Amino acid sequence: MQSKKQGEEGKMKHVKQKLKWFVTGAVVCIGILSCKSVTVNAAAAEYGLLVGNSSGHYTYYDLNGGKTTQRIEKSSGKVMVPVKKVSSYMSVLSYEYNWEQNKAAIKNKKNGKKIVLTKNSQYAYMYASKNAKVKKVKLSAKSYISSGSGALMADVKVFRYVFPKAAGYSFISTGDSEGKKKISQAYYNSPNLKSIIVYNPYKAVTSLPKADTVSFKSANELSSIVRLTIPEGYSLAQIADLTVKKGVCQSTKAFIKAANAVMPSSYWFLKDVKKTSARCFYLEGYLYPSTYEFYRNTAPEDVLAKILKNTGNQLTKAQEARAKELGYTLDQVLAIASIIEKEVSISTEQANVSSVLHNRLSSSEKLQCDATINYVEHYIKPYITGNKDRYNVYYNTYKCKALPSGPICNPGKKAIQAALYPNNTNYLFFCSSKKGKYYYSETYKEHQAIWEEIKNGLK
């Protein structure tokens, strides 16, 4: 059947005498002189971060300005730092995260040292040089993905493993009298300042240095929240691509892998959905179209969990019962709804098209919907390896006997409603003109006559 649906730092500045910054909603005054103090964001600051460069100058960073930023955190009594962000402050370092393996690598581009961290593991693997043998090391705490910012958090001491000298790291705390004295003498003053972390990827830290540069960004500037809208009719592959494009996830492949790894027992609406070789993407049809908020660089598993939680709120037991009345499972109804979503561009026509599909399913006719061919060609084949034609027989409704092996997109509420409540007709065929008008017929002869008129511009 021929039919198509119509298809989107504060500025860094060297300070010689005095610097004042005014931030909306609060005034933050930062002064740097040999006899002046550096005042950090008093309302939220707990940890200061000093980073040295190759010239011996230090920049002060405040990573405590808001819950949505990649902040320094405390977990199980251990101080944890956002690895990617802190790495970005040291040009000699590179950072990579492999979402498929849940591993992060910090590498010193100058000396070849590297450490590999694993999500939710207290162990890391260190390479003393480019060609050195790997050495397993135990960190003070497990690395984890922060629920507050989506950042990979690691033990504050982790960077010393890639510095030329382990003494390139120092931690000065106000919790002891000596540390408090050092911080006071260095003119870092704040009632909430707990500690100062010092990183120097070039040489040892022998004392608490003074900052030559101050970098500060407000919580709003550093906000890492992304609003992601899943349109009705998007396929799982399109959603995977969208999360990467928006900076929510880092890998389309990792997203798809995580989606196929979801356990049916985790969600009531998946209990009858079988994982078989005939079904390409297990969660196709279940990523409910809506607008979601995520942190940047969120693990695909966490993105999927949030979407599926909403799906569980949108799909109902009543819909499942209605599907049973029709002689289908909820998954089969979603497959019908997904075809309706892709074949029909006008919502008022969905119930009529639904009747065509239901009537054909009740007869000996194959569905023969062009949208299913499009799905295989554009949203399966580019995303799989091996025999790329192996899903034709399962999804191409010109070849498969009845419904495809699963939904071909993620349908919206109206399409699902139409699939559950088709109009009562005897139609077996439909088509639409370039003007967007839909035509229905009960026989193939009538259908062919209408289609010829459409092709000749008569309709």
From TrEMBL:
Enzyme class, UniProt record, top EC level: lyase
Site (Important for catalytic activity): E343
Originating organism: [Clostridium] polysaccharolyticum
Record-given protein name: Endolytic murein transglycosylase
Membrane disposition: Single-pass membrane protein
Keywords: Cell membrane, Cell wall biogenesis/degradation, Lyase, Membrane, Transmembrane, Transmembrane helix
InterPro entries in the record: Cu_amine_oxidase-like_N, MLTG-like
Protein EC: 4.2.2.29
Domain (Copper amine oxidase-like N-terminal) ranges: 76-148
Main location, first listed in the record: membrane
Transmembrane segments: 21-44
UniProt gene name: mltG
HAMAP family hit by this protein: MltG (MF_02065)
Record flagged with keyword Zinc: no
Subcellular location: Cell membrane
Any one GO cellular component localisation term in the record: plasma membrane
GO molecular function term, any single one: lytic endotransglycosylase activity
GO biological process, one term: cell wall organization
Name of a matching Pfam family: Cu_amine_oxidN1
Function, in words: Functions as a peptidoglycan terminase that cleaves nascent peptidoglycan strands endolytically to terminate their elongation.
